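Section 5.1 Outputs to date
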Amino acid sequence: MDLRRGRRILLFLVFVCIASGAFADNTYHQKETDDYVTLGDLTVEPGKDEVYKLKVNLNGTQIYTAFEMDIELPSGLEPVMEKDSKGDMRPKVMIWRGQGTIYPYTVDEETGDRDFSYILFASYGVIGKNILRMSVSVNGKDFTATSGTLVTIYCKASPYLKPGVDDVHITKCHFTTNEKVIIDGKEKRGQQYNCKDRTETITALPHSTATINVSSKNQWGSCVVPFDIPELPSGLEAYTVTDRESGIAYLKPQTSILAYTPVLLYAENGFSGTFSGDVDETKYKEVAQQDIIYGAIVPQTKNNGFVLQNLGEGVKLYAMSGQKFEIPAGKCWVEPTFTNGAKYMEMVIDDGTTGIGNAECSNGIAQHEPVFYSLDGKRVENPLPGNIYIVDGQKVLKLK
C-alpha cells in the first residue's frame, strides 16, 4: 500500500470536515416557508368619499415575533395619508387590536385598557410606485397565535380605479421567529422565514364619481372621466383639440363629455362640480386619446408635448421642452403633429366661422400684433381678456 497516498486522502478528509463544521457553526441562513398572507374581501366604489379598510391576514404554522412585506396596490386605490408625531405624512396602517388579536398585550387592572407594545413602520411610494412597505415588531415578544389579522390598511378609491377585479401583489414578505441562530460565531435570536410572492384581489364597482374643478384665476383646465356627462352645466365649456398648423391648437366646442374623451375646459368665473355615471369596463384604458389631446387615467410622467400653464402671460399650452411633468389621473396634455419648435400654442376656437378679418399669425409665437374683430365684423383696438373675437377668420378667445 502507498502510505503517502493514504496520508493525502486522510488530510483531505480532515480539511473537508473542518470546513463543513465552520460553515455550519458560523453562517446564518434564511429559510423558506409555505406560510402565507391573504387580504380580506374588499369591494369599493370608485370616487366615493368613503374610507375602506383592507385587512391583511396571516395563515401560519408557527409562532412569529415580527414581519415585513411590500403590498403593491392597483392604480387608483391609495392609502389614506396622515401626519405622524414628527409632522411627516405616512399611510394610515393600524395593527389589529380587536377580537382575536394575535399581538401580546397587558391589561390595566383598574381601567381594563389594553397596552400593546410594538413598533410599526409604514411608507408609501418610497420603494416604488403604488407600493406600501410595512413592518411590525413586538419588541422580541412572541405573537399569541400562528394565524390571524395583522394590520388594517385605510384606503380610498379614486374615480379612475379600473372597474372589476384588480390585482394586489404581496412581495418581499418574511416573518421572524425567536429561534436561536449563530451569526459570526455568536448566539442571537431571530430566524427569518421567507414567504412566496402572492397575488390577491379587490373588486371595484362599475360606477364612479368625479369632481371637476376650474380655477376662477386661470379659467382654463382639462379633464378626462370614465363615464359620460351627457349635458354640460351652465358656466362650463368643453373642447376637443386638433391642429392644422404649427403653434395653433384648434378647439372644437362640445355640448357633452364622453367617457374616456380628454377635453380642455373653460369657465369664465371658475367652476367646481361633481358628476357620477356608470363605467363600461371594456372601454377602460390607462391613457385616453382624442386627436392630439391625451388624458391620464393612470398618472403619467411626460417630458414631450404641451401642458396648460400660466407663466405670467395668461394660460396657454406651453411646451414641456424635455422637462418632466407629472400628469395626475384625470388631467390632460397635448401632443401636436408638428410644432417647429414653438414655445407655446395659441388656442383658437374653431366653429367654421370664416371671411372676417385678415390678420396673420406666425406659428403661435407673436412676432407682430394680430388684428382683432368683434363678432359682427368691427375692428377692435383694445380687445379684453376673456372675450371672443375674430382673428384670421377664426374665433379666438383672448387670454391676456
